[in-house]
Amino acid sequence: MYSERLKEVYSMSLDRVLRTERKVRRATRIVRDVRSWCGWSYIQDLARLCSFPELVYGLILTGCRASELLDLKKENFRDMEDYYECVKCPVYKRYDVTDITPLPDGLHKKYTTELVMEERTFPIFKSEPMSKEFWEYTQQQSGLLYPFKDYKDRYGKLYWLIRSIPAPESPDRPSTAHVYPHWFRGMRAAQLRIEYGLDIDQLMRWYGWESYETAQRYAGMSSKDLAVVIRRNIKERVPV
Fold first, then answer.
1. Is the dihedral of CA 58, 64, 67, 71 positive or negative?
2. Which of 31, 87, 92, 219 is the most interior residue, by most CB within 10 Å?
3. Distance CA 123, CA 80 (A)
4. Contact at 8 Å (CB) between 144 and 102?
5. Which domains does the chain have, with CATH numbers?
6. Where residue 1 falls among pLDDT bands split at 50, 70, 90?
7. Phi-psi region of 224 (alpha: psi -120 to 50; beta: other; left: phi over 0)
8. Which spans in 21-145 are helix H?
9. What confidence score (pLDDT) does residue 140 get?
10. Is the pTM of this model over 0.85?
């Protein structure tokens, strides 16, 4: 059974979302906005302030693109010993050109494309913040995890629900002007790199990337991040 709050969110029209949520300027989706891992406490603040926190749970824990997250179902998740496994998660890579038809004017062409989709399987450890809440939410669903009423408008709803998160009321918390759905994808990559020490090849496996350059863009490390990694390695180093 959906809670009354979720019923309201699922059934609202996109126009209502735009009318009722705080108006924000559309952000440019660039990975450069992710300069360092922000920490779990900031992510938890965003979830707490979001009118639909389950979106934040899903975006950060899966690292999915918004379109991929919206296609996930309850059946994509399994309860393992110390982690939850997301299986056959869709990976929407690109559009391939399948046909080119010249137009009557002789100057232009019509391109027919199809979406190239692959899949990836990855763990979400139970020790991670918000993982229990996310798992419980997935088990309450009977189909799509986020069954918005208007299928065609669902990305618009997700986008504006995330963009309308107010800034945490704390002087040490930055504004949320940079927070948009794809930001969580880059932030998850930063967290996997900094906290878990995944290298570029392991990140490519986790995300299903084929391009080394793509992984490098997401896996950039600030001076603060480098200090965290070096400090951890010094503590774990075995004395000679």
1. negative
2. 219
3. 9
4. no
5. 34-227 (1.10.443.10)
6. very low
7. alpha
8. 40-49, 53-62, 66-69, 131-140
9. 94
10. no
